[in-house]
Inverse folding.
């Protein structure tokens, strides 16, 4: 893919450096049918601060995506609710990455969505760019592998929107969009149609390789953000909250 990068950015020591404040623009992804957006965002290749969010109602939910090798001393293992604040580079302090890196039970989605929304309100976030892969019953258009729906703002891409009559069976996405509309925060929802995928690394057979690269290339075109493609593509994904044995067998090989 164009723009592939193998060099890793220097990051700060793996420790929270104080109270968390989200930046003006938040990139948000979660564990959907393919976790492609999550893997794309967790591969951000810039200087950053690590934070994790505490939501008592999901304290036992484990990370869905983990590194395939042990992290460097200046890095951290990924958490179930991960926040990465960019810093120290030109315009970088405008961006925060928020990843719901766990399989959320349907009845717990509103707790996590409210936590994120409260942080957005407290930080006076101006825009949310939400990445999602959805299983939707629409005709595939090779000229537009991505869709964009907007709320309280204008599109940032030339891709068409998901038809308004499309049925969405995604509790977290529906809850998050509802809260975004209530609060009036600008949101660009970047959607790649997809299907539920199996555990392990991204691959071309199930489309996760292409989805991750498309998300990252789109964000690189829109911003000055940079991503480590290989980190994202090699990340190990657990396809269900009970698939612990399979995840352990894949790690650090």
């Amino acid at each position: 893919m164009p723009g592939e990068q193998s060099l890793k950015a220097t990051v700060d020591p793996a420790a929270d450096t104080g109270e968390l404040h989200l930046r003006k623009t938040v990139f948000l992804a979660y564990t959907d049918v393919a976790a492609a957006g999550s893997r794309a965002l967790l591969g951000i290749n810039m200087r950053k601060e690590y934070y994790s969010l505490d939501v008592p109602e999901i304290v036992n939910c484990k990370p869905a995506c983990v590194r395939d090798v042990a992290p460097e001393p200046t890095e951290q293992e990924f958490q179930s609710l991960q926040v990465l604040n960019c810093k120290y580079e030109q315009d970088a302090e405008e961006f925060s990455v928020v990843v719901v890196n766990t399989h959320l039970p349907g009845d717990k989605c509103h707790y996590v969505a409210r936590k994120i929304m409260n942080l957005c309100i407290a930080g006076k976030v101006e825009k949310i760019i939400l990445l999602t892969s959805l299983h939707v019953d629409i005709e595939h258009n090779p000229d537009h592998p991505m869709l964009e729906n907007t709320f309280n703002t204008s599109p940032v891409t030339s891709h068409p929107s998901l038809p308004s009559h499309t049925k969405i069976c995604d509790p977290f996405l529906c809850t998050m969009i509802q809260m975004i509309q209530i609060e009036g925060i600008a949101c660009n929802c970047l959607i790649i149609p997809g299907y539920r995928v199996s555990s392990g690394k991204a691959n071309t057979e199930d489309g996760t390789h292409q989805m991750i690269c498309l998300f990252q290339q789109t964000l690189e075109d829109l911003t000055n953000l940079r991503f480590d493609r290989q980190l994202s593509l090699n990340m190990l994904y657990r396809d269900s909250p009970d698939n612990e044995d399979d995840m352990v067998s894949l790690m650090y090989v």
User: Anything to note?
Assistant: The beta strands are 25-30, 48-52, 65-66, 81-86, 95-100, 127-134, 147-151, 186-193, 236-237. The chain has a mean pLDDT of 88. Helices lie at 36-42, 109-122, 171-183, 208-222, 229-234, 244-250. The longest strand covers residues 127-134.
